[in-house]
Amino acid sequence: MNLKQLSLPELEAALAPAQPSATAVRKVFAGVFAHARPTVDAVALAPQVPRRVADLLRAQAELPSLKIVERRQAEDGFVKYLFESPLGGRIEAVRIPIFEEKYVVCVSSQVGCALACDFCMTGKLGFQRNLQTWEILDQVMQVRAEADRRVGGVVFMGMGEPLLNYKETIRAAQILSHPAGFSISGTAITFSTAGHVPAIRRYTKEGHPFRLAFSVTSAIPEKRAKVLPIEKTHPLPELIQAIREYSEARRERAMIAYVAIQGFNLEREDAEALKAAFEGIPIKVDLIDVTDPTGKYLPPTAEELSAFRDHLQILKAPIARRYSGGKEIGAACGTLAASQYGGTVLPTPAASPRQA
């Protein structure tokens, strides 16, 4: 019984032989996630956990953990955690500072990635396996345990395509947003997808409170196919229709992630293609400078980006430039590859009251 793997209803079913009250089940769930009790014994000894439930936990439960290989900090305050899983493989999470208020954690959902986006270092690793729910949650738990301010958001924008690991990532998000779990608002949890249309439609139908960010990068299919091979499997018109359905169901603007690449997708024709593709769909555009350590793709010049933002005014939509930090440590968008370079390696911190 892996306690970090179970949603509240699943935990209730697992503990059913001990005939627990709803309160006892919730206390165990909160002990695992909200309070991050480090051992099964610590969970079992929590107030309002009856003896029969405690005995069942001691006999059958486990609390596995990822191993932190290192913590590496960039000059801009971004911290990359490199983890090793007992199930195999190395993955990364990034602690993102939001002013002086909170952290957002960027988590991985797979070891490697099968989509092979041409500017993404994770894609060059190939796909190894999906992460289990507990491996996703443990990234957040370990970052939170060492944080000097609250973790107020989670983005599934690390290694892997989260919608290709649908069951595990959705369960993780449900636990992250549960009041007795991590108590993170559903609207502060975002899944980034390169455009897996069947999963987007399933997500829309199920009506989850979390947000989707759609990586488009070009509304000219030929251009998009050069950098996002998924275009050949789920062509742009199919993706646009799925985005339309999502926006209509939620009655909100769809977030369009647009990776800005020098000399590639920043001309007037690119803005006009976006306008034509999303006609009648309320959107907001996040511009993200490409970060490609190989040097094949370069970020836009200031003049190029300024001109493109002017072109984008024809969309009559909000346009933001998303900061992609931690470049020198391989923590920026598209650079996660279980690497170890740059920045400052942080020591293991002293145990906090939560850890002790």
UniProtKB/TrEMBL annotation:
InterPro entries the record matches: Aldolase_TIM, Methyltransferase_A, rRNA_lsu_MTrfase_RlmN/Cfr, rSAM, rSAM_sf
Cofactors, names only: [4Fe-4S] cluster
Key words of the record: 4Fe-4S, Cytoplasm, Disulfide bond, Iron, Iron-sulfur, Metal-binding, Methyltransferase, S-adenosyl-L-methionine, Transferase
Keyword Disulfide bond: yes
Domain Radical SAM core: 99-327
Gene Ontology MF terms in the entry: 4 iron, 4 sulfur cluster binding; metal ion binding; RNA methyltransferase activity
Name recorded for this polypeptide: Ribosomal RNA large subunit methyltransferase N
Organism: Corallococcus coralloides (strain ATCC 25202 / DSM 2259 / NBRC 100086 / M2)
Source taxonomy: Bacteria, Pseudomonadati, Myxococcota, Myxococcia, Myxococcales
